[in-house]
Amino acid sequence: MNYIAVHFKISPYSEMAAEIVEAEISDLGFDSFTMDDSTLNAFIPQDLFHEPDLKTVLGGLYNADFKVSYSTELIAQQNWNAQWESDFEPVVVNGMVTVKAVYHKDLPRTKYNIVIDPKMSFGSGHHQTTCMMIESLLEEGRELKGKAVLDMGCGTGILSIVAAKLGAGVPVHAVDIDPVCVSSANGNARRNRVSHKIVNRCGDAAILQKGSYDYILANINRNILLADMATYARALKPYGGSIFISGFFTEDIPMLEEAAASLGMRKVAVKQRDEWALVKLRK
After folding, report:
1. CATH second-level architecture of 123-282?
2. In the chain, where are the structural domains located?
3. Distance from C-alpha of 192 to C-alpha of 128, rounded to nearest angstrom
C-alpha cells in the first residue's frame, strides 16, 4: 500500500494551531501524524486521498489567526521501510525493555527484548506516548498477571507484545482499523514468540464487547479517544477496570478527564513527557 504524506506549514506556528489542523483533517482518512520542527506531517493511504476535500476543509479555517499551506509526497511502501531502517535506533525503556529492529545486532540485553519490523505501521517505541505506555505497563507489574488486556489502535503491536511478555491473560486482544497494521502486528507477535498469546483483529471500537477487559491501552489521538470513550467505558469490566489513554497534548487532559468522568471513570495517574501526556483512568 502506498501512502500520501501531506506536509502542512502553519504560520505563525503554535502547538494549538497544529492541533486544530489535525482535528479538522482527521475525518478525511488521515491515520497518523508527526511533527517536524514547525511542520505537521499527516499520512493517508493513497486510495483515500481526495485533494478537493482537503482544500474544502482548509478553506473553512479562513477565520483562524494562522495561515496553512501544504505540499504532498508519495511514499511507496519500500521507500517507507528504507526510511525506517535509516532512522530507527534501539530504544531502552526504564532499563527493562529494549525495542529494536530486526537488523540490530549485539545489543546489551534487558529483561524484555522486543524485536519489530515496522513495515507500514506506526509504533516503534521512540515516540513519547509509546514510551509512557510501556512505562505504565511495567509499573503495573504483577497487577497485569492473568488480566484481560486490549491494545486499541495497535499499530506494530508493540504494546500487546509487552503486555503478553508481562504475563497478561491469554489472549491479549489487539485491534487496528488498518489491515496493514494488523498484518505487521501479527508478524511482530510471531517474531517475538508470543503469537499464541495475542489475537490481532482489524476493525474499530464498534467490535468491542461489553465488560470484556481489565485493561485497555489506547494510544491514538484526542479526537478518536473522545469519540470512542463511551465504547471503551462499556468494554471495561464493571469494577476496577483501567484504561491508559495517550496520543494527545497535556493541554487536552481536562477535556478528556471530563469526558471520562461523565462515563463513571476517574483519573488516577498522569504522565507527561515534553508536551505529550498519558492518563490512567479507572472505573
Report:
1. 3-Layer(aba) Sandwich (3.40)
2. 3-75, 123-282
3. 23
